[in-house]
Amino acid sequence: MANHSRHVLHQLRELINRDPDRFSANIYTRMFAIDPDLRELFPAVMSGQRDAFFRVIDHVLDVIPQADGHPELVEFLAQLGRDHRKFGVRPEHYGVIYRALIAEFASLLGDYWDDETAQTVTQAMMLTTGVMRGAAETAPFPALWSAEVVEKFRITRDLAVVRLLSKAPLRFAPGQYLEVQIPQRPKAWRSLSPAIPPNPRGELEFHVRGVQGGTVSCAIVGETRVGDVWHFAQGHGTLHIEPDRPVVMVAGGSGLAPLRALLIEMSKRADTPPTHIFYGMRYPGELYDLVVLRRIAATNPWLRVTAVSEETTDPWWITAVATPEALGIEHHIGTLADVAAAAGPWDEHQVLIAGSAKMIEATRRRMLIAGARASLIQHDPVV
């Protein structure tokens, strides 16, 4: 790429980063002015949508100048194109998005918008919208599939288990997460990890903690009822197990779900490597799935389970299903990151981490200090 083109894209990136929310808001305003019907595809509150849109464009402007070919960028955009089908975005809408982007960039650059600059920007945005459109048009599977809630029960005041049945084939791999939409919050999509691997009976299970301020998670815990129909889009994530290397798993709270699904799948194999899972919560009584982990370990000698809690006793509102001590499970007091790291060395292990963004970052840092190789640490994207 010529120096002038690199300079233009770098300058654009600097301009949009000065006020990301304004940039995204302007794009959507232009889009809705071109095609007012597009507004119906998006939720009433657009802050999350605008932030996601900005991050995509910022990433595009960052990557395109770096090298020719852009294979990773093309796959990223193709995945976005397949993903956006769930919103009802049709191929013809990408022309609207392209026009809105070009108009906004021309406005941002002002007097610097000449023929050479216009060619650079239009090529970048044609790549962006063209790849997304092409991937959407050639996607091998329908945009959505659904499942019906058949059981729901509360574990604690803010944690629920939801079980569903689907008549459609389950299109995800163990350890992946799914984009989910519930009837109580239409147009709002959230990512949830199934706690069991896919099976031919169409069974699904999710463990959902109501996060303070989380409209979807709190609605699932408080409002989901048997008979509700949930919609699902694509599966994402790459958590997996290599059979030739020992495994350490670190699961914080309901982050246990994807690792639990992997453990269940691993129990079906003859080549499963030695695995040690650290499962932690703040209070020992919140370790709701120790019974299941104990059951898996009882018939699979390759699995070792360690329970971790930051407190030694439970508050009055928690009634423990079974204590670690009663189940014969090793129990440590401390933070999950500290306990897991101290049990190393982990330099020969593949490390899988699942939980909150804060927990993932803290655990990854401590495991690196404990000798784990960065190339062998896996976790889902930290948002």
From TrEMBL:
It comes from the Bacteria. InterPro entries: Cbr1-like_FAD-bd_dom, FAD-bd_FR_type, FNR_nucleotide-bd, Globin, Globin-like_sf, Globin/Proto, MRET, OxRdtase_FAD/NAD-bd. PROSITE patterns: FAD_FR, GLOBIN. Coiled coil: none annotated. The keyword Iron applies. In the C-terminal section; belongs to the flavoprotein pyridine nucleotide cytochrome reductase family. Belongs to the globin family. This is nitric oxide dioxygenase. It comes from Gordonia tangerina.
